[in-house]
Amino acid sequence: MDSVSQFALGAAVGVAAMGRRTAVWKAALWGGVAGTLPDLDVLIDQGDAVRNMVLHRAESHSLFWLTLFSLPFAALVARIQGQWTLWRRWWLALWLSLVTHPLLDLMTVYGTQIALPFSNHPFAVGSVFIIDPLYTLPLLIGTGWALATREKRGAPALMSAGGVRANAVGLILSTAYLGYGLAVQQHVTRVAHATLAAQGIAAERVIVMPSAFNSVLWRVVVVAGDEYLEGFHSLLDRPSADAPVISFERYPRGNALIAELQGTAAVELVRAFSKGFHAMRVEGSRVIITDLRMGQEPAYIFSFAVAERSSPAVPLAKPEQIGARPDLGCGLPWIWRRMWGEPMPPLVRHCARSAPPSIR
Which of 133, 156, 182 is the last residue of a domain? Predict the structure, then answer.
């Protein structure tokens, strides 16, 4: 998840675990810090762009290593705060704030290696978008309420009974929202499989994930032979007897290129990390591999130049990231209208029509 969500979750967990044992701002601050620390691995250069992608959310997101780290971290915080007698409670608060970070990341589609050092499998559920205000707002409101309604008598200022309840309600609502996302994902998955069966599409892999910033409009990606398919389903769609529940657009997957560059280190890393949801294409003189899970046709965040196009293709010494973010000026209105059940052409065609002639 994004840094704001992780800080908000860590702060709320810290406040809930510390209760009225310390000043509410201290619990919120240190919980937020602990909830942010795992993402500092983005500052580490792993050697190239592909490795930076696949090794993000690795050791720093391991439940085992975070648990070990929580012990000296809690001791340090208890010393700084002059509350050594409370170090066990500080340990509980900070451990929970640390480990809930990767558990929340687990709910996104980006892989999280929570089982290191015992397994480097990138676990991913994909039931919440990486930025979702409906998840984050209850946490911010609940913790903000706790901070604003602290008791004024004495020092330090402790959390009021109302603040305890507000913070707890924020945590409950945000967690319930994750449960809602899981339930909706399963529903849309069933709809996707039924649609594919009705259209006679032999799917090798199917993945369902929410579109940007919401959990009403869901994106479905299908791998089928030498093609991948992309479709969208809104919970507000109105089924019609004359139209499929989900309309899919087909795109070439580049299986010949995948086979040609099989065994290349960068290609194998992306193939494993994407769990098969990848495609390859030639762009100019270079061969590009794309993780199809993060983005939307035609813009994907994780696309990499991995080889020079020749006969045969020559792997680059160092892959280069060339991913692009979607055009939000065109993409967000498209998502908004499609979310409400309005039939829309694929984003790639819609944005092409919307662009001024001079920049098409």
Answer: 182
